[in-house]
Amino acid sequence: MLRVYNTLTEKKEEFVPLEKDKVKIYACGMTVYDKPHIGHARKEVAIDVIVRYFKYLGYETVYVRNFTDIDDKIIDRANERDIDFRELTHENIEAFYKTTTALGLMEPDIEPKATEHISEIIEMIEKLIKNGYAYETGGSVYFSIKSFNQYGKLSHRKIDDMIAGTRFEVETEKKNPLDFVLWKASKPGEPQWESPWGMGRPGWHIECSAMSIKYLGDTFDIHAGGRDLIFPHHENEIAQAEGATGKPFVKYWVHNGFLTVEGEKMSKSLGNFITVDDALEDYHPEVLRYFMLSTHYRSPIDFSIVNLKETEKKLYYFYTTLKNLSVFASRSSGNAVRNEKAKAFIDEFREAMDDDFNSAKVVAAFYGVFKYLNDIIVSKKTRPAPEECAGFEEVIKEAGKVLGVLQRDSSEIIEEIKEIQLKRNGIEISFIEEMIEKRKEYRMKKDFAKADEMRDKLLELGISIQDTPDGTEWNFS
RNA sequence: GGCGCCUUGGCCAAGUGGUAAGGCAGAGGUCUGCAAAAUCUCCAUCUCCGGUUCGAAUCCGGAAGGCGCCUCCA
């Protein structure tokens, strides 16, 4: 039984889809005023795994992820660079796609853009005015939060408390300081569209309500996003959607925790702003992905060098084991056999994922199985039959597919990781090969003192070597 | 000022009232020319103080520390 934590009820609930065997998911995508950063990556990986697990369970999924390609920040950035806002958003959308490809994220079924849904937005605003939830003033339209008596139900706040804590300047045309803009009258030179209230553009929250309802219906199963979106963005989305349709908007609200960098919040002012591109310079995409999954999606995660290196080591270990395993599995006559241990692993995997997508627990389960495999494979006595080895390969791939890891060819990915490590450490591979060659010569001459010297030199650079039946191998330790 | 979250061994991290998963690091063993890799063994009573309970890391109250949101933010 799958259980999902719902921000609305603040509890883990049994997942029951609105429509049998079907899950409709909307995840708030980027506001494309800048390049995607690693916080975006975390959110994308989290929702990606959630969607993958639904598919794994046999649900038909409809996954919608939007681009908000018009808002104040976009206009400001475009003005700073003196380019058209469309040029800016196009650029950042391309950058976003680059990272989703690198991180192996599934493509959503639908990717609507705000600027392509202006008429739906206007329609929704008209409904809100008609239903008495919104008012027009000076060419702009605002949502009146006082008129929506459930306002605050998602973020569990009281309106009066929020007003007391208001720190920003109250815009005079608003009836209530917490009222938010649905349609913004445009200033000269700004992007603008025609509307019943004059030229203007949509407010920041309305696009998600309009687009999610258009593609998923008035009520759908899951709406996801970062924690920070709970208020005001998602709170406002509920007010808009339910105000317009009169129906419940979303059944389960899912929010991922924040990512910190070396213990601090990531921000431009702290100078610790890391784009996905930056991160991919130093770490393999699958390492980044696996790192994101080693902590439960709702918990905060700290992006630190120590943590990343540990993850890198883990993946390296997994793929090395997989490589050894495949040697035996390839002798299989054909049919893979899942023995007790293999079945137990899959059970563990499902149980963990059923518990609010607890990928951190899956990580532990992976450890268990890899450790077990390393143990039994080395000995001829305990080594499972080739068919059983193939069975292990199968279950690892099966679980790995949901997390989006361990699908690649072991040898290839090991080489890729090594390349990144060499680059990161500024070491030439030719130097390593030279040292290994020299050591080999000394060893042939039984000059172990000299041979050890070669090894020590490599060790100083963080490189350890292993003598295997197939020759000497090296890796970063 | 308001609302919410977090605090588990040197570090990272699961823990859903029933007697602390896993990993890294560390110590010791096997293997090895020596190593490394792999593997085995060892290594915590859960920030503090009260309370509920036969029994609490898990529930309640309080304290301390950290964080987030309330303004754009995944």
In CATH terms, the superfamily of the largest domain is: HUPs
Enumerate the strands of the largest sheet in spatial order, edge to edge or round the barrel. 4-3-9-10
> Which strand-content bin applies to the residues?
5-15%
The residue fraction in helices comes out at 40-55%
> Using DSSP, what is the number of strands?
15
Average pLDDT, all residues: 91
**Separation of the first and last Cα atoms:** 41 Å
Largest sheet: 4 strands, parallel
Described by its quaternary structure, the protein is: single chain
- Count of discrete structural domains: 3
Overall shape: it is elongated
Count, helices: 16
CATH fold-type name of the largest domain: Rossmann fold
Low-confidence stretches: none
Q: Over the alpha carbons, how many angstroms does the gyration radius reach? A: 27 Å
* Broad structural category: alpha/beta
Gross CATH architecture of the largest domain: 3-Layer(aba) Sandwich
Structure commentary:
With about 475 residues, the chain is an alpha/beta fold. The chain folds into three domains: about 20-265, Rossmann fold (3-Layer(aba) Sandwich), CATH 3.40.50.620; about 305-410, Anticodon-binding domain of a subclass of class I aminoacyl-tRNA synthetases (Four Helix Bundle (Hemerythrin (Met), subunit A), Up-down Bundle), CATH 1.20.120; about 425-475, no CATH class. The chain contains 16 helices and 15 strands. It has helices at about 40-55, 70-80, 85-100, 120-130, 160-165, 205-215, 230-245, 275-280, 285-295, 305-330, 340-355, 360-380, 385-405, 410-425, 430-445, 450-460, and strands at about 5, 10-15, 20-25, 60-65, 135, 140-145, 180-185, 200, 220-225, 250-255, 260, 265, 300-305, 465-470, 470-475. A hairpin with a 2-residue loop joins strand 14 and strand 15 (about 470-475). The protein starts with a strand and ends with a strand. The protein binds one RNA strand of 74 nucleotides through helix 1, helix 5, helix 7, helix 10 and helix 12.
